[in-house]
Write a structure and sequence with these properties.
14% of the residues lie in helices and 38% in strands. It has 2 helices and 11 strands; from the N terminus they run H-E-E-H-E-E-E-E-E-E-E-E-E. A hairpin with a 6-residue loop joins strand 1 and strand 2. The longest helix is centred in the first third of the chain and has 12 residues.
Length: 153
């Protein structure tokens, strides 16, 4: 099965990859480089951990069990903390954050597994009923991502 995924990845990238090729994955928040195999990358690109959407419970600390779905949606009822998601798997992950009818809510703190462009969490929209969409690549340990859509009505 991995060979067909490598073939598909080769077709997408134009690269000549084998299942044993290492691909460096750089985490800009630290000074180390992690290597993943082309087979791991192909699996992450071509197979999401668990397609499916789930509504996350609005609480002081928001929890996310990714085995229930890699697309999470939460409506903020106050300022919140984003906890560390559980059951991480290599793949694409989406987090939709909705403002309630009052607005002016935010995520005040993100767990360290969230890795951001330039090392800074994005500024979320605060208008009442606004929607922000964040996208991530999960390497199985961390979520590398950023703000995809800000303030959609």
């Amino acid at each position: 099965m991995a060979d067909s995924k490598i073939s598909a990845l080769t077709a997408l990238t134009g690269a000549n990859l084998s299942t044993d090729d290492d691909i460096p994955l750089v985490d800009t928040s630290v000074t180390t480089t992690k290597k993943i195999t082309s087979a791991e990358l192909a699996i992450g690109l071509l197979k999401n951990p668990t397609y499916g959407s789930q509504t996350l419970t609005d609480a002081a600390t928001i929890s996310w069990d990714m085995s229930s779905g890699a697309i999470g949606t939460v409506t903020l009822g106050d300022n919140r903390i984003m906890g560390a998601p559980t059951n991480l798997k290599v793949g694409t992950v989406i987090l939709v954050i909705n403002q309630d009818g009052t607005g002016s809510r935010t995520i005040t703190s993100w767990n360290a597994v969230f890795k951001w462009t330039a090392g800074a969490a994005p500024v979320l929209s605060t208008a009442a009923s606004a929607k922000d969409v964040l996208t991530f690549f999960c390497d199985g340990t961390n979520l590398h991502g950023g703000l995809f859509v800000r303030g959609s009505a």
